[in-house]
Amino acid sequence: MAGMARPLRLEYAGAMYHLTARGNARADIFLDDDDCRRFLELLGKEITQQGWRCYAYCLMDDHYPLLIAITNIEDSARDGNERAF
Length: 85
Fold this sequence. Notes:
Blueprint: E1 16-22, H1 33-50, E2 53-57, E3 63-69, H2 76-84
Antiparallel strand pairs: 1-3, 2-3
């Protein structure tokens, strides 16, 4: 299987996506409650701006998973995580 690319991700409005990010070398990305609050403020702004629906999230010291439904597929899935966080 060497050299085979992974299958293309299906993208369509209303699709559910599991987004996640982890600190480099599993380092903490949330050092205190203020970090968590600030992240949630930024996440809320991005969700509103992109027109996403967030069904679940969990903030852990070194990473976070999000369960998001995308409504505007042209912009959201490609650049949301890189730009916002």
